[in-house]
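User: For documentation purposes, I need each entry recorded in a consistent format: the amino acid sequence on its own, followed directly by the corresponding structure tokens. There are two entries in this batch. Please keep commentary to a minimum and don't merge the entries.

Assistant: Recorded as requested. Entry 1:
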Amino acid sequence: MVAGSSYLDAEPMPALRSLASSVWIQQVGDAPLAQRSVPHGGAEVRCVLGEVPRLLGPLTTAAHLDIPAGGTVVGIRLRPGVVGGLAGMPADELADTDVAATDLWRDLNRLTDTLGDAPTPHAALDQLQRFVGRAAGEADPVVDEAVRRLMPWRAGGPAVLPDLLSISERQLRRRCRATVGMGPKELQRVLRFHGFTARIQAAVDRAEPGDLAGWAVEAGYHDQAHLTRECRRIAGVTPGEFLAQYRAACAGADDHDHVAAYRPMLLGDGRSVQARVLRPA
């Protein structure tokens, strides 16, 4: 969510849709940018073309990432529970970290060169998606179901999961930390905030007036005061500031498209528009 750049979110290629929620291409203008990334429950594989790809681990608070002037970034937003199998290590060791991919995967120099030499950003993104598809391990079906049941529109919460999933609370927490990077309670908080973020993105796209109190309840908060506390904790700003910053960066910008990132968090919203699909390069 930054001014001075173009940003296109899109659906991942079909073979990657069980692993990734969206992919993106960002192209930066003449000035370097410090971009805020907010938690969404998953991790991200991102590459400034010409540099080594990096893995942004599962976030519990916002992170700020520097993008050089004139840089082009391609990235993949992984679903919650994927990063542990992809990195081949417990996901909680990657939480709130930004790691050079060379520290995780061998023989990555060839991929770095391939991405940098790609004729278009779309072609580079295709190559990155194919790499992630080959590197990813098997998902944990119990954790997958836990993630589905912790989405903002679902009733219940972490306390009911052990009985529903026929697993002990301790085992569930251990498996969530190993695959998602955080326990069920923290994951619910992150997914709830992601739901609020998605509601802001949709409202800005539709030029809707702000309704922070209504959006708070819609995302699963007790009230607006509860949302304000969580927004300060996670993003470092109030909900009103968060909305104003997003509007300043994206409102009316034809070269910003975040539909693929926010649409999955607005289940049942019949006004949601179709996410863009990138054609293979």
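Entry 2:
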Amino acid sequence: MNLEHDILSFNNLKTQPFTGSHQGMRYCIRKMGDEKKGEPVFLEAFAWPEPFSLKHTNEALIEREEFSYSEEGRAEAIRWLEERYEARKGSWNSKL
């Protein structure tokens, strides 16, 4: 699994979340917080089994991690998603 070229650039993540799926694993990376309101800003990544959206998936099945709001954080989030996929490679489709 290589998401580096699939996931939006850091500049695009500033304005919109990115969601996708790969062989039974769904994922999302999004910006959280609002610097104008003095809130901490970071990237949040999720991995969960298909077929449902993040909103409609049992929370017990969702893995979540936070990353710095930077290009480096984006790269770390991508690596984390790839690691999550590999760690559970045989089970992603079993949740269908």
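Summary note for entry 2:
The first strand starts at residue 18 and ends at 22.
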